[in-house]
Fold this sequence. Notes:
The protein is mostly helical and 938 residues long. It folds into five domains: 2-41 and 178-342, Up-down Bundle (Multidrug efflux transporter AcrB transmembrane fold), CATH 1.20.1640; 68-164, Multidrug efflux transporter AcrB pore domain (Alpha-Beta Plaits, 2-Layer Sandwich); 356-394 and 754-904, Multidrug efflux transporter AcrB transmembrane fold; 421-472 and 645-716, Alpha-Beta Plaits (2-Layer Sandwich); 475-642, Helix Hairpins (Orthogonal Bundle), CATH 1.10.287.
Amino acid sequence: MQERIRKLHHNRIFALVFWLIVVFAAIVTLPNVNTIIQYDGQPQLANTSQPVKATQIQNTWGRNLNGTYTVNAVFNNPGGALTNKQLAAVNKTVANLQKRSSYYGIQKITTMTNTPTSKPQLYSKDKSTEVVQLAVSHNQGTVRQITGQLTSQISTLGLNTYVTSPEIVSDAANEHISSFTLIVILMTLLIALVAMGILFASIIAPIITFLAILISYISTLSLATNLAYHWNFAYSEYTPIFLLLGISLFTLLTSFWFFRELRNHVDDGMESQEATSKVIQDLGYRILISTLSLTLAFGSLMLFDFSTIRAYGLLGIGFAITGIASVTLIPVFAGMLGTSLFWPKKTRPKLKDHKLWHSLARFGLWQPWIAILVVLYLVGPFAYSYRNQLNYDNSTDIPNNQAVQGARVLSAHFGQGKATPLTLYVQTNKRLDNQNQLFQLDNLTKKLRAQPGVASVTSVTQPGGQPITQYYASTQLNSLTNELTGVVGQLGTVRNDLKSDSANLKQKTLKAEIKRLQQLSTQTTSLVSDSSALQSSLQAAQSKSSASSTSSTSKKVTRYINQLNAVNSQLNSAIATLSTLSSDVSTTNTDASAAHSNMSNYAETIKAVNTSLNDSRKQVITMQKSLNKMYLYLSGLQSSEAAKALYLSPTQISSGDFQQSLTNFTDEKVKATYLTITLKNAPNANDTAKTLTQLKQVATAQLRGTIMEGSTLTFAGQPATTATIQNQYQHDLPRVLLLVFGITLLLLIIFSRSILQATYWFLTFLASTAASYQLTHLLMKWLTGDGDFNWQVPLLAFVPVTVLAVVELTQLALSYRLNDAPLLDWLLPGINEVGQTMRHSLFIIIAGVLGLLVAESQTLTAVTLITILTAIIFNLTLPIMASSFGKLSVILPAQKPHEFHAPHRKKRQKRADRPMKSAKSSKADAKPTTTPDDSKKD
């Protein structure tokens, strides 16, 4: 039994069983990667970030809007303006959607019909596009499910319809990435298989490498997805891809080392298990320090708060697993198969001595300064012109997606920032339904609209994005001045009338009338007296005539009597007439007396009225002058800035239109509101973060010293999310590079036991990376017209180039450390020896990233180009810079000012330039200036 166990251990069967158990558990427990990308692929923002705070406000909004997000249903007529028939069709579609709102989780529908004040924001100026805003609950289903249902529901005959929102576009980006992730994985593995087959002209060796990559990758991917699924660990939408990049490249390189050494030992007649043990013994330290460097460098990224960067920390675990698999899993098959591992080619390939690194190193040793200047001349401009202009829009790679097309329609007809509005939440401890609060909110709205980069702002006082004229003092003053104009005119008429009345009611005229009445009264009195006397005389004559008529009988008497009778009759008639006249005169006299009395009273009254009219006219004149001054003041005030201020009367606040605006823009407690800010540019613009910072400062300054000072100001929306990511990323990326490259350089110094030489090599790598980055930018700009990289490109490219640096520099460092010869004697042979595998490493690196091109993604294409160019530039400049700086580090300290022109110093310089001398002669030559041990030091 012990013998069997020993045999199993000797054949490394236990290691195989262990990896089989690991990969089986990884496959069984592996969650759905597409689901993880959909839900956890986007960057996780900190709880202190503004978008997260805004989400907390939104989740307690009330009005049945808790936990909702806004979706835009876009109706577009590509042929021009929407016709009345098409508008009616849109209304019918919205009505049907309203009926099924509970099924789709729609809590609120906002249209230009039910919210007329928001019409400018919902109906394009060219009248070709109408937007219907839907508040959809997060609990109703996934974004992808809701989008599919709404897309079919809003379909309207004759119109192009889209369902879009920043959340939907982000989900579409994740869906697109997940769609090509599997293809990239399969193609990368296939190319790795072919590359190993080409290198070893074998079928079995590539299969073993393929299994090693697959087992390491599945184990790491399962661990990463389970951490994200169960413990909410950081996860990126590119996690499956960058894990594959790092693990496949490192496995390919270590497998190449292993199989090449194994082939040499087996072909020399060594038994397979013994040869495998020998290879592990020879390469174990090299693989160990490479694994340790990569594990520590990438594992340190778990210390960062930014989730996308922290997700790359899983590579540290991946490299640890890969390193263990390289020295435990591959030897299992190598020990069992032996020479069969390299079937069908049975003879060892004849290795040629490649002279590229040898020639480049000789050039560096020949004239170090010239070599350095040549490299700096060729590479320096690209590295110096390095630019870090990144694009934070993940939708640029998405082809033919309805949400992206809908966003583009909104940008075309409403402005670039319409599809991705910015929302400013204002939360205070006072109600916002009064003039004082609304006045400050309106001032804030106008202030924000005036900022550079802002296209429009909507708020509770300006729901349509434009001021409502009747809510402002200028309009109200205009009405008041118009009324004042009328009043002043009327006062002028009254003044003229009063002047006319005063002129017409003269007291002298009244006195003349009274005098005439007095004369009439005197005359009538005299007439009455005369009439009375005459009546008495007539009566006496009548009585006499009656008496004399009885005693005379003569004709004369008779005639006289007849005449008297006639006179008597006439007198009787005159008496009657006089009596009537007397009566009338008496009445007239009484009336005249009364008229005289009344006219006297009237004259006195007219005198008082005239005095009063004069006083009134003076007061009207004074009032008219005051109103003229008031009119001039109000007219000036109307044209001033002060008249542009909001003033809402209690009647206006309680009106139906404004109450609807309060409902739309404030929470249930009317203590929180939001302002929707549409930027002039989409959030992928590089000045988004700067614009957001400026807006936050402006809003804070605007409310400072007002009744709303101290209110909570929080930004939400895609621009805020993009700005938060941009700020965190730009803040952390230099620290990431410094930490990872610092750890790599530190370990390189420790392994090589040289500070200066390791630093020179690493600076060469950094310059090569910077130059390749800039070259890729120029190539991408030439190929696509847009040279800005997606913000994930530096991190993704960071993985393969770091693997390249660690693998090649570790090999160079070990060669330097394990050599006992002086530095000058080691430079040429040591660099030449490392360069013998340069072409293979270069081939592996290039082949390892070619699988990314199958995705047809600008992001992954840029990563591929950066990796390939870095590998080429680095492998061409490293031998030159290593030999040049290596030689200078020896000869410069050895030179003294007074000995600089000494003949023996020149001879020693020439001897130092001979790179192929033996160690013994080199040590002898170097003895006057430095000891062999000192030459290894910096």
